[in-house]
Amino acid sequence: MSQTATTEVKRPEDEYLGAGPSLGYGFQHVLTMYGGIIAPPLIVGGAAGLSTNEQALLVACCLFVGGLATMLQSFGIKFFGSQLPLVQGTSFAGVATMTAIVNGDGGIQAVFGAVMASAAIGFLIAPFFARIIRFFPPVVTGVVITTIGLSLFPVSAQWAMGGAAVANAGDENAIFKNVCLAGATLLIIMLLSKVRSAIISRLSILLGIVLGTLFALAIGMADFSKVMDGSIFAFPEPLAFGPPTFQPAAIISMTIVVLVILTETTADIIAVGEIVDTKVDRRRIADGLRADMGASFLAPLFNGFTQSAFAQNVGLVAITGVKSRFVVAAGGLIMLILGLLPILGRVVAAVPMPVLGGAGIVLFGTVAASGIRTLGKVKYQGTPNLVIVSTAIGIGMLPIAAPDIYSGFPTWFETIFHSGISSAAVAAVLLNILFNEIKLGNPPKGEGSVFTAAPPRYVRLESLEHLQGSLREGDTIKNGKLVDSEGKEVPAITASGEVIQAPVVENRSGSSNSDH
User: Fold this and answer.
1) Which residues span the membrane (predicted)?
2) How confident is the model at residue 426 (pLDDT cuts 50, 70, 90)?
3) Residue 492 and residue 428: Cα distance in Å, rounded?
């Protein structure tokens, strides 16, 4: 027994820094993900038509559940928790799908039911997920994550205009003022992102919301008069919005989201394992996914939503070099305490919509950019992946561009495909199987599709005429520099005769001095 304990202590993530440092670094983790964890309850609560106090309750509950999930993931018990520094919180992946469900017949109770049922399905397949993850390569996950970000921009636009009521009323004067406030908030975030301080830059969205709200308060566009209405400290009321209801189509939609979350969490577990330099095996991944799904299953009982690992906090572990899982557990404790303070939820719910709209442009854009970054890892030349990406994203954008496109279809079909995320996910998975798993009928290896063929390379005549007076027979380009026939570098000079370092082309594979 002592030998096992000694072995576990040697793991980098088992280092204990003490109560003070752990709470300090843990609070930094909370600040890093705070903007991301409060946005989903505000979006879903707004779509459900909840009052300010009810949205405040959702925010507090999501913090409470996120704190419990984080502590479970980082501390870990038998079969539950990867025992890695992973911060858990309400997943952005399900926001658009939950909004689509809440706009249906079942309301927010159908959302809670779909979350519970899909989490149960995710829990059951967690031990086997490592075997089916092959169906979720970067070409699939990249499409889904990109679509998640893109599908949320209508929410940001509506926030920027002042919310659904103002947007539907068409008050041009009010919309003008609100959009200007959203633009001011966006400008503040951009300026904070440019500050040399790494801490301020990382917290730019949160600080931008705070400063944007203070600016709104100064010009009379914010109202915090009802913040003190209600209790300061309270335990989240279980099933405050009534018992969950279970609609098959809603469950199928959320199950698709859960598969994406399982993929993301698996990637985060592997990534943080590499950062911490610790062993991550199939058992550890399964334990982490079970903690994810177990917390997601229980979340609706406390008015919360699907839980997942926060990728930005994985990045924070890499930046700070603090590998202790007890630091993240301390952050989970802080979130739990914040969730017991409904007054904090009322403060968040009182933040003006246009301020959230300005921050949402960056926040949702960051999600889309993360998907684009994932798609950047995909090989396109000589493969059908470009067809998969373009078609799946196109299908995902259809219900975003035309929300009523599936109104004539059966209810179950409309519920699933009304969400751009579900549409893109289903399309990406099926197309990936069709083109990359089923090889029959594919073009010869290396040829790809006509859509992926590289355009013919050419050089403009004007460029050649411009170079004719400078180049000589035998001149070549080597390592981005012009070299003559004897292998000597031909220097570049300015009009004043000064010799400068000016590469002819970038020193990378496939570069050329030709125009395209």
Assistant:
1) 31-50, 56-77, 108-128, 135-155, 175-193, 205-225, 245-262, 326-345, 351-372, 384-403, 415-435
2) confident
3) 49
Lowest mean pLDDT among 67-71, 74-78, 133-137, 495-499: 495-499
Say whether 51 sits in a helix, a strand or coil: coil
Convert 414-459 into a string of H (helix), E (strand) and C (coil). HHHHCCHHHHHHHHHHHHHHHHHHCCCCCCCCCCCCHHHCCCCCCC
What are phi and psi for residue 88, nearest 5 degrees? -105, 150
**Residues in the chain, overall count:** 516
Structure tokens at 148: 């998640």
Element at 307 (helix H, strand E): strand 307-309
CA distances from 438 to 377, 427, 435 (A): 22, 15, 6
Identity of residue 363: L
Supply angle C-alpha 422, 426, 427, rounded to 5. Answer: 115
Tokens at 292, concatenated: 């994810």
Candidates 385, 369, 430, 306; CA nearest to 150 is 369
Give me the numbers of helices (H) and strands (E) for the chain, helices first please: 22, 6
Neighbouring C-beta atoms of residue 95, cutoff 10 Å = 28
The dihedral over CA atoms of 213, 214, 215, 216, expressed in degrees to the nearest 10, equals 50
In this prediction, residue 369 carries a pLDDT of 83
Amino acid at 396: G
- Per DSSP, the residues of 208-277 read HHHHHHHHHHHTT----TTTTSS-SS-PPPTTTT------HHHHHHHHHHHHHHHHHHHHHHHHHHHHHT
Residues near 381 by beta carbon (within 8 Å), at least 6 away in sequence: 448, 452, 454
DSSP 93: G
H helix or E strand, kind and range, residue 336: helix 325-339
Q: What is the pLDDT of residues 466-496, one digit of tens each?
A: 666 677 777 788 777 778 777 788 887 776 6
Distances (CA, A) of 37 to 23, 31, 244, 371, 470: 19, 10, 22, 19, 60
The reported pLDDT for the residue numbered 68 is 94
In this structure, the dihedral spanned by the alpha carbons of residues 162, 166, 168 and 173, taken in order and rounded to 10 degrees, is -100
450 vs 452: CA distance, rounded Å: 5
Beta-bridged to residue 477, according to DSSP, are 482
Taking the C-alpha atoms of residue 302 and residue 59, their distance in angstroms, rounded to an integer, is 11
Residue 372 identity (one-letter amino acid): I
- Distance between CA 371 and CA 283 in Å, rounded? 27
Per the listing, tokens 């870990």 go with 76
HSE (side-chain half, CA atoms, 13 Å) at 404: 0
Q: For residue 430, give Cα distances in angstroms to 135, 301, 392, 426, 434.
A: 9, 34, 9, 6, 6
* The one-letter amino acid at 500: I
